[in-house]
Write a structure and sequence with these properties.
The chain is mainly alpha-helical. Helix content is 82%, strand content 0%. The chain has a domain at 2-57.
Length: 82
């Protein structure tokens, strides 16, 4: 019977092509359905990332470290014995 109809390579290729087409349709439908929500999510995440970046750039790390060191050396070490 296999000899009469030839190999199944062509049928297998068509099956995979149909499956890939179905996946593409599902992805396109999901993008249409969730597109605005995803856009809002990425915009919000980008805004928050920008805010964190700006906050970190404003921090004066040297003075923060100096303040922490002066507090620990002035006896405010939280129960440490000198």
């Amino acid at each position: 019977m296999q000899r009469k109809f030839g190999s199944r390579k062509g049928a297998t290729f068509i099956e995979y092509a149909l499956l890939a087409g179905l996946v593409a349709i599902v992805v396109a439908a999901a993008a249409m359905f969730f597109g605005e929500d995803l856009k809002g999510l990425f915009v919000t995440t980008g805004d928050q990332t920008t805010n964190v970046k700006e906050s970190v750039q404003k921090v004066d790390l040297k003075s923060t470290i100096d303040n922490a060191n002066s507090r620990s050396s002035s006896g405010g070490g939280g129960g440490q014995n000198p």
